[in-house]
Amino acid sequence: MRIIAGSKRRLPLKTVEGKDTRPTTDRIKETLFNMLQNEIYGCYFLDLFAGSGQIGLEALSRGARYVVFVENAKKAAACITENIRFTKSDKESLLLQMDVIAALRSMEGKYQFDIIFMDPPYDKELEREVLEYLKSSSLLKEDTLMITEASLQTDLSYVNELGFTILKEKCYKTNKHIFIQKQ
């Protein structure tokens, strides 16, 4: 696993050992960032269920101003810390090792994000819990873009009830990205 483009291009990243996380493949990551290329520069980026931190670090490499990583698992948080240190991203990032909802609460009134990326464990409806929290959160701007990486079976038809709309879905062989924004 590596950073694909930008100022930290080609830097290798550590991954979390074991099967508790599923790193986004380079091909899918490249497709995602090609879709986001006009949104990344200068943005505040939130990486929820961050795993190894590769998505947030890719955003920093491509010009994001600041990234907050949220990861509860001890091994994964240690991996993110190492990757932040290795890529010399300490000054433009923050790692919160805690439950995602607790982390969101702790950031209220301190941050507003342009892009929120979440890659929760599949088929546990954790993205719904996050979206229910975010519907009335000050962490969102009017045009904050939220992206969920999910299994192909994940149904997000409820987002309209929460005041969000699905802008688009990009399906791959085994998963998909769903792009969501406030209505």
Automatic annotation (TrEMBL):
<dbReference type="GO" id="GO:0052913">
    <property type="term" value="F:16S rRNA (guanine(966)-N(2))-methyltransferase activity"/>
</dbReference>
<keyword id="KW-0808">Transferase</keyword>
<dbReference type="Pfam" id="PF03602">
    <property type="entry name" value="Cons_hypoth95"/>
</dbReference>
<keyword id="KW-0489">Methyltransferase</keyword>
<dbReference type="GO" id="GO:0003676">
    <property type="term" value="F:nucleic acid binding"/>
</dbReference>
<dbReference type="InterPro" id="IPR002052">
    <property type="entry name" value="DNA_methylase_N6_adenine_CS"/>
</dbReference>
<dbReference type="InterPro" id="IPR004398">
    <property type="entry name" value="RNA_MeTrfase_RsmD"/>
</dbReference>
<dbReference type="InterPro" id="IPR029063">
    <property type="entry name" value="SAM-dependent_MTases_sf"/>
</dbReference>
<protein>
    <submittedName>
        <fullName>16S rRNA (Guanine(966)-N(2))-methyltransferase RsmD</fullName>
        <ecNumber>2.1.1.171</ecNumber>
    </submittedName>
</protein>
